[in-house]
Amino acid sequence: MKYLILACCMISGSAFSQSASQLSSSLDSVFAQHFKAGEPGGAVLLVKDGRIFYKNAFGLADMQTKEPITTRTIFNTGSISKTFVAYGILKLAAEGELSLEDPIGKFFPGFENKEIAGKVKLYHLLTHTSGIPDSRQVKQEHEFYLTAGDKENFAPLLKTSGLQFEPGTRYRYSNPAFNGLALIIEQISGIKWQDYIREKIFLPSKMLQSTITDGPHPESGVSHAYILNDKKQFEELDYGEEPTFAAAGNGGVWSSVEELWNYEQAIQNNTFLDRKWMEMSRKIYPLQNWKDYAGSRLGLSWFITTQEGQNLIGHTGSQGGFISDYLWIPEKKIFYVLLCNIPKPILEIRRQVFQALSAVNWLN
Which of 79, 142, 206, 246 is most buried, taking the most CB atoms under 10 A from its CB? Predict the structure, then answer.
């Protein structure tokens, strides 16, 4: 019997190795369709059962210097940044410095409509259910928003005279809500919110190269983002070219696929926040008066969704020419992250990745 068990394990291990090899080949084919040598590109990392099974990088981080992308290249993560801001708020809540039930008027006494300031709570901002309209005039004030920070991006909301819907009843994605949340972290902690996140989340998570926008970003040490213009030329589109890029609370975190895997491990191991709060962040938040046409899929900044029968926890990001996809499949213990410095069809790429995973029975 002992020998039979050993033989079965050897066969199982061999089969698993073959599956991993097949998957790697399939993923190479997937990404070869979307990334070309000598162009802006991306980096990808795939983990199964805590082990990195696939990581690769494609294209150039900087079209001027021709620096190649690696899995350690720093990209702007776009709205994945919101999860860091959310954890900053949750950490302060766990320490009793604030409550998710606090009205925003407590932190912004300059809110002109006191009724709205009293009924909109922090958890409404975290779940994109505040009902406060995005009243920024970005197109009309293009030059102003090229350098406007969190405070300037949140300021127009202080003049809100009416809501789009009652708080907590519907969903409407809000970037300036997270500019406001970042300002609250700064107000309560007494230090720049970027420094708070670096100290409380980045360092415990071993995100030593990751950074957060705080004014102009360095010209070197990070990837630059591009779009393909009408002349079929690559045109840079990030800080200084894209309005609201300097507003960091909604999209200011810069990281690599390797360090985002460190972040995911820190979340799963409750490294910077205890289990109760971590689990709360990744469950659908109870909104008692929900009236939207679709069921809520809103965690505390995370989106709780399904795809091809799989329960997913994740967030996408898009800012300037950067675009990204961050995904955890809890039942299968699969983690997937893709960071690009040129717009790519990330949901189509994800679908193709899922096909490759299904082909080796990793999603069955």
Answer: 246
- Reported as a single tens digit per residue, the pLDDT across 259-302 is 999 999 999 999 999 999 999 999 999 999 999 987 789 999 99
Look at the chain and report how many structural domains it folds into: 1
Q: Of 97, 88, 57, 254, which Cα lies nearest the Cα of 182?
A: 88
Amino acid in position 178 = F
CA distance 357 to 314: 18
Give pLDDT tens digits for 225-257: 999 999 989 999 999 999 999 999 999 999 999
> Can you give the pLDDT at residue 295?
77
**pLDDT at residue 338, as a whole number:** 98
User: What number of CA atoms fall less than 13 Å from residue 234's CA on the CB side?
Assistant: 19
Instruction: Answer yes or no: is 210 within a domain.
Output: yes
Encoding tokens for residue 170? 């519907």
Which strand (E) or helix (H) includes residue 349? helix 346-359
Asked whether residue 11 is domain-assigned, the answer is no
CA-closest candidate to residue 173, choices 287, 317, 283, 279: 317
Q: Are 184 and 122 in contact (CB under 8 A)?
A: yes
Does the residue 6 lie in any domain? no
Q: Which amino acid is at 228?
A: L
Cα(204)–Cα(326) distance, rounded to whole angstroms? 20
- In terms of Cα–Cα distance, which of 189, 179, 144, 172 is closest to 158? 179
Tokens of residue 154, six digits? 């949140």
pTM of the model as a whole: 0.94
Instruction: Count CB-CB contacts under 10 A for residue 313.
Output: 20
Residue spans of the chain under pLDDT 50: 1-11
**Domain of 316: which CATH number?**
3.40.710.10
Element (H, E) at 326: strand 322-329
What letter does residue 78 receive in the DSSP assignment?
G
Q: Return the pLDDT at 13.
A: 55
Pairing of the two strands 234-236 and 226-228: antiparallel
Tokens of 341: 């410095």
Q: How crowded is residue 271: how many other Cβ atoms within 10 Å of its Cβ?
A: 15
Distances (CA, A) of 342 to 145, 216, 232, 235, 312: 22, 20, 13, 10, 25
* Structural domain containing residue 193: 19-359
